[in-house]
């Protein structure tokens, strides 16, 4: 194994036309390398192509063209080894209601050809907190328990790479934290590479070392989380005036607004306007400043800037 858990080159996927639907170019030539041992976030709006990409990695969707290497194994040359290297927790709760968690894990292990002697069913049940429910019918499990069972199923063959497609969408906070704790532990203790898609930008910001942003089937940004945020040029200065006053005149290029508590907020490009010039304009208007602070961009800003239609590729 080299440095990368996943290497993707020129990956395309076109879903065939059906009925009145024209063909859909879901992936348009994606190049992506995902470092081994990282927690990697795949972000993008609905329909961007995230699930298509993940399902190709998982071997659930057949790519149209391009190369995919998983843990060094080319998907086309070594399909068995590449499949054995990856586990996927899908978005949908597709669990057989008549299996108990223990049976579901055993069946999954069988599907992956894990011999009985090498199965770690009890360890997985413990890790996902379903020891007590090992013999319960899945139809009697709560939504949260089912989701944990899906995570367990993705782990039966002890994959090097664990892929989670929107694992916490529509999940309550308690379960979300439990899932994240599980995932962090896998990453830290076993070195499992984690790839996840999420709509929760805060979560990606907190969890992921590196992030790729995908839109309309193309990767438009890919960097460390901190570098992505650092790349944002927009800056917001929040100034509380001593007394309630109207917004002062600002130099061109500064967007002004006034918040409900009377604070001014000025947003401008760091590369174009000096913070001093903004403060100076406030003082010149005869306004006494009680408090002043800056608001740094977060991933939400990066995401909006990169995926908004008027902006081109990063
Ligand atoms: P995401 O997971 O980012 O929301 P998807 O990969 O699910 O995006 O979908 C990407 C695009 O491909 C969307 O326009 C979607 O409608 C289309 N698509 C996904 N699956 C199929 C399919 N089986 N047949 C036709 N079009 C599909
Ligand atoms: Mg999806």
Put the structure in a nutshell.
Helices cover about 30% and strands about 30% of the residues.
Would you kindly provide a written description of the structure presented here, covering whatever features stand out?
Keywords: ATP-binding, Nucleotide-binding, Transport. The chain starts with a strand and ends in a 7-residue tail after the last helix. Among the domains are: 1-85 and 159-167 and 190-230 and 299-314, P-loop containing nucleotide triphosphate hydrolases (Rossmann fold, 3-Layer(aba) Sandwich); 233-296, Alpha-Beta Plaits. The strands form three sheets. Strands 6-7-8-3-9-10 form a six-stranded mixed β-sheet, sandwiched between helices. It has helices at residues 50-57, 79-84, 101-111, 121-127, 143-154, 173-190, 201-207, 225-230, 275-284, 299-307, and strands spanning 4-15, 24-35, 39-43, 65-70, 73-74, 86-89, 161-165, 193-197, 210-215, 218-224, 234-241, 255-258, 264-269, 289-295. With 314 residues, it is α/β, with parallel strands linked by helices. A hairpin with a 2-residue loop joins strand 9 (210-215) and strand 10. The longest helix is centred in the middle third of the chain and has 18 residues, at 173-190. It is built from ten helices and 14 strands. It is elongated and about 80 Å long. Helix content is 30%, strand content 28%. Adenosine-5'-diphosphate binds at residues 15, 24, 26, 44, 46-52.
């Amino acid at each position: 194994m080299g440095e990368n858990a996943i290497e993707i080159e020129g990956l395309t996927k076109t879903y065939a036309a059906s009925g009145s639907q024209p063909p859909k170019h879901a992936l348009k030539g994606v190049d992506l390398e995902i470092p081994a041992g990282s927690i990697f976030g795949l972000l993008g709006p609905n329909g961007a192509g995230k699930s298509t990409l993940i399902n190709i990695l998982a071997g659930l969707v057949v790519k149209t063209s391009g190369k995919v290497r998983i843990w060094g194994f080319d998907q086309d040359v070594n399909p068995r080894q590449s499949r054995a290297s990856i586990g996927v927790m899908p978005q949908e709760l597709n669990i057989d209601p008549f299996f108990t968690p223990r049976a579901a894990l055993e069946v999954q292990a069988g599907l992956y050809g894990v011999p009985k002697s090498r199965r770690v069913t009890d360890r997985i049940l413990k890790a996902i907190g379903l020891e007590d429910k090992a013999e319960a019918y899945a139809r009697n499990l709560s939504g949260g328990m089912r989701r944990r069972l899906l995570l367990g199923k993705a782990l039966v063959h002890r994959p090097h790479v664990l892929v989670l497609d929107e694992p916490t969408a529509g999940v309550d906070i308690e379960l979300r934290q439990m899932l994240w704790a599980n995932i962090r532990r896998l990453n830290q203790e076993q070195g499992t590479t984690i790839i996840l898609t999420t709509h929760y930008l805060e979560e990606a910001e907190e969890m992921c070392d590196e992030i790729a942003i995908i839109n309309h089937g193309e990767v438009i940004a890919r960097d460390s989380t901190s570098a992505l945020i650092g790349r944002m040029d927009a800056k917001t200065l929040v100034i509380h005036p001593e007394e309630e006053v109207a917004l002062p005149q600002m130099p061109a290029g500064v967007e002004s607004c006034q918040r409900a508590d009377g604070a001014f907020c000025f947003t401008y490009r760091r590369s174009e306007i000096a913070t001093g010039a903004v403060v100076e304009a406030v003082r010149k208007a005869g306004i006494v400043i009680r408090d002043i602070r800056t608001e740094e961009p977060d991933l939400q800003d990066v995401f909006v800037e990169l995926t908004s239609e008027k902006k081109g590729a990063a």
